[in-house]
Amino acid sequence: MTNTKNSPAAERIDQATLLHEQTDPLTHTPVHLLELKDVGKHYGNIIALTGVTMAVDTGRVTCVLGDNGAGKSTLIKIIAGLHQHTTGTLEIMGAERKLNSPREALDSGIAAVYQDLAVVSLMPIWRNFFLGSELTKGIGPFKSLDVEAMKKITKDELAAMGIDLRDVEQPIGQLSGGERQCVAIARAVHFGAKVLILDEPTAALGVKQSGVVLRYILQARDRGLGVIFITHNPHHAFPVGDRFLLLKRGKSIGYYDKKDITIDELTSQMAGGAELAELAHELEQAGGHDEVLAEVKAEVAETLGTQEPSHRA
Amino acid sequence: MTHVPVVETSTTGTDQRKVIHIMTNTVLTPPAAPKAADERVASKGAITTLLGRPEFGALVGAVAMFAFFALVAPVFLQPSSFATVLYGSSTIGIMAVGVSLLMIGGEFDLSTGVAVISSALSASLFSWYFGTNVWVGVVLALIVSLAVGFINGWILIKTNLPSFIVTLATFLMLTGLNLGLTRLIGGSVSTPSIADMDGFESAKAVFASSVNIAGVDVKITVFIWIALVAVASWILLRTRVGNWIFAVGGDDKAARAVGVPVVRTKIGLFMGVGFCAWILGMHNLFAFATVQSGEGIGNEFLYIIAAVIGGCLLTGGYGSAVGGAIGAFIFGMANKGIVYAEWNPDWFKFFLGLMLLLATIVNLVVKKRAETK
């Protein structure tokens, strides 16, 4: 999906007409950093995912939205090389690929930051940052860690992400959930990621921490990364996203540019509104809990269309 | 072994529905400008840093115990007595180095006590039976010790069983092998003396001699011990392997996810324990020229106790080589101090247990304090 509606590109003469029989891939064929066309995944006769089309570009955030079991994790696993897709095509920089391992994905510049973050909480931040890719100096058996350089790079990389850290020597477990998320993101960026997959980075966080993480997503975007932001929360996705892919029960139920959709539409597409209404209904049936019921009802009303457009950042 | 949830993880359970609308407004506010003087750093002074070291609790314990025995048994302070204390500490300490590293790597080894004897037996019996230079036996013993470590680690990785079970099995098997093979080859429960064999004197000079320092004979194991602690500390804190040891002990899944060779690290740690067992085994052999095949049982706990007193977490990911050394020193002081104080040595085990309990509690408190500040 590209900006074909109003962008100048759409007004150009079609490539095929211009080129006649020549083929020149360098003309304005839009090549995405990562592109999925009609991708699907079957486990035997179980269809986990079908018909997913999406693109990731440098400096853009593609959000993947869906409730639990919608197929988000299957999608990430395909992109991160943990699973292979069974139908459709996956293209990296225009070349069709099938990623066989996370290492292969990493080598192609695709890094995933999972919910558990792969950090060792008792170890200092800088040791975590370079874990598995430590810098060394000296030769032979006397090769030792270049501690100063690693500390400095850690501090600088985190500062570039806008993270003001107390001390890179403290155990990473002392950081808040949001900060740890950011260290994991900064680590992926430093080690050459071009496409960054963030798996539910805000799921376990409070309001303030979620805000912090969303800010770092924008930082990563501004540094030229293509970000895939997986979430079940449209209110987290909308402010930072450029494109939105909606998944439900393993199917793509919509793929939008930001200009084509409002947060209210996004929310109701996610069926968040319908589910809230259902919850309200259930609460009503159960009786009691009047305060909670009133609150949920207010939320339903708000979610389904009374929100101001000014919320769109 | 999984990582310890020492540290509070992210906040959960916030009412998502309520937060949503605030979110959309706050997300895009620019990051707060960093303050010139960060108020968060101020509280962390030199003392807090010292308190945060894994071996701090043990250090306090060692100083207290030293002062205690210096008071009740003045003979304890004489250089010769002190050399004896150091020697006692070193025989535990050499093993405690390997065991500490292994424990930081998230595993432990119950076969270490008998593995020391296995190493000594294989050197002794091989050279005696084939009539070779004892150095051939010494090299063979090194191979045997490293192989025992490798097998422990390899079975652990392949089966995913807890190290408790795997090394308990190795412990029992080695105990049986030690007794069985010694009787089969040498015809007795102890090995024949190798004191008159080729190379014995030079091997004794390497593994079991004394160095005279200012009129006091200090056993060479003390120096080997100190060198091992220094090398282990360097590996742990200043090499990639050290980083990996902390990582596999702290959270092996996370370590694997970022490309740390978990299998190689763990097997290497078990082989490191094997190496230490070889050194101590050679010392035992060349100090007495003969080895009792039934010895060593129970010593594995002393090594583990030294590591734990020294601040290594039983669950992995935290500790230091220096800590293990201090733990061994505490053990040596208690062991010999009771003798110098002319108490009944029956009380020694009670002392040891009490020390273990106190040290672990102190470690726990110290670590919590350091981490929440």
From TrEMBL, chain A:
The ABC transporter domain, residue ranges: 34-274
An annotated Gene Ontology molecular function: ATP binding
PROSITE patterns per UniProt: ABC_TRANSPORTER_1, ABC_TRANSPORTER_2
InterPro entries for this protein: AAA+_ATPase, ABC_carbohydrate_import_ATPase, ABC_transporter-like_ATP-bd, ABC_transporter-like_CS, P-loop_NTPase
Pfam families xref list: ABC_tran
Alphabetical keyword list: ATP-binding, Nucleotide-binding
Keyword field contains ATP-binding: yes
PANTHER family: CARBOHYDRATE TRANSPORT ATP-BINDING PROTEIN MG119-RELATED (PTHR43790), SUGAR ABC TRANSPORTER ATP-BINDING PROTEIN (PTHR43790:SF8)
Protein name, UniProt field: Sugar ABC transporter ATP-binding protein
Organism expressing this protein natively: Paeniglutamicibacter terrestris
